[in-house]
Specification:
Elements (H helix, E strand, L loop, with lengths): L1 E4 L2 E4 L10 H5 L2 E9 L2 E2 L2 H14 L8 H14 L5 E8 L16 E8 L5 H5 L2 E5 L20 H12 L4 E5 L5 E4 L3 E6 L2 E5 L9 H12 L4 E4 L3 H5 L3 E6 L3 E8 L5 E2 L4 H24 L6
Parallel strand pairs: 7-8, 7-14, 11-12
Antiparallel strand pairs: 1-2, 1-6, 3-4, 3-5, 5-6, 8-9, 10-11, 10-13, 13-14, 14-15
Bound molecules: N-(5'-phosphopyridoxyl)-D-alanine.
């Protein structure tokens, strides 16, 4: 396996970062996860745009041009002969002496890692996954804005530990007011009286790229969508629930535990949106391949 580290591809065994790296010492950095379908990085421009937003929100100057970032991703995929994969792009503040001051680090550390995407078990989509509501609250927007896709993931990891303890696949976090926000690595949707509901960005979430696409697809297919403020009770009484992210796409939930053992059906709206999402992916891949065939030959 090969990894892109700073300016070159190196064997994974040589892809080493210093213990003085502020990503390691302080979680000072940002990242993006992308999915590659048939050699094409899905929604690459949107992910890079969000990467720049995260960088700007933490005052980090990305040491590469957008075109060079794209090249580094495709070079890493090529070095690993991968066409169906996920990509993790990480930029940390870089190497520097101990101390919080970002100016201690002269150069950010830039890493692209890829691996084959083997998919989730079919049963996750056919039967739905189990969710739980975590007791740990989502980071306050005013403290660590969830719109920064940062390396500082302890908030989410604490919630993930609770999910595992509850034998659930994903944990949904509430904000300080007790309203629904999002999962540890996903956004949440539910259907109530035929309306597709999802917490608004103001609740303190990462505005997922998949989430935006799903909202768009729902509207295009004649569904009513409500981005708003919701309580866990509204989730328990939903007719359908699903979570979204880049690798999961649209993943239905079967049950929200801890509360009243609510069971949801893998309903028609979840199925429709997953189908439409996958159609959208296929269209995107075809379009990109037609735009620049040389990239995929
Ligand atoms: N996670 N919310 C959080 C906290 C996330 O970490 C993610 C993505 C999402 C969904 O975003 P998108 O649809 O753009 O993937 C929402 C990625 C997959 C990760 O952590 O690897």
């Amino acid at each position: 396996m090969y990894v892109y580290l700073n300016n070159k591809i190196v064997p994974a065994s040589d892809a080493k970062v210093s213990v003085f790296d502020h990503g390691f010492l302080y979680g000072d950095g940002i990242y993006e996860t992308m999915r590659v379908y048939d050699g094409v990085v899905f929604m690459l421009d949107e992910h890079i745009e969000r990467l720049y937003r995260s960088a700007s929100l933490i005052g980090l100057a990305i040491p590469k041009k957008i075109s060079d970032i794209k090249i580094s991703i495709y070079e890493t995929l090529k070095a690993n002969s991968l066409t169906n994969a996920y990509v993790r792009l990480t930029i940390s503040r870089g190497y520097g002496p101990i101390g919080l001051d970002p100016e201690l680090c002269k150069e950010p550390t830039f890493v692209v890692m890829t691996n084959e995407f083997t998919g989730y078990p079919k049963s996750y989509y056919e039967e739905g996954i189990k969710l739980t509501i975590a007791s740990v609250r989502r980071n306050l927007r005013e403290a660590l804005n969830p719109q920064i896709k940062s390396l500082n993931f302890l908030n989410n990891i604490l919630a993930k530990i609770e999910a595992k303890q509850a034998d659930a696949y994903e944990a949904i976090m509430l904000n300080a007011e007790g309203h629904l926000t999002e999962g540890t690595i996903s956004n949440i949707f539910f259907v109530k009286n035929g309306i597709l509901c999802t917490p608004s960005v103001e609740c303190g979430i990462l505005d997922g790229i998949t989430r935006a696409m799903v909202i768009d697809l729902a509207l295009k297919n004649g569904l009513e969508v409500k981005e708003g403020i919701f309580t866990p009770e509204e989730l328990y009484t939903a007719s359908e629930v699903f979570i979204t992210n880049t690798t999961m796409e649209v993943m239905p939930a079967r049950r929200a535990d801890k509360i009243d053992k609510t069971e949801f059906k893998v309903g028609e709206i979840s199925k429709l949106l997953l189908k439409k999402y996958r159609q959208e992916v296929n269209g995107y891949v075809k379009e990109k391949k037609a735009e620049d065939p040389s990239l995929w030959e």
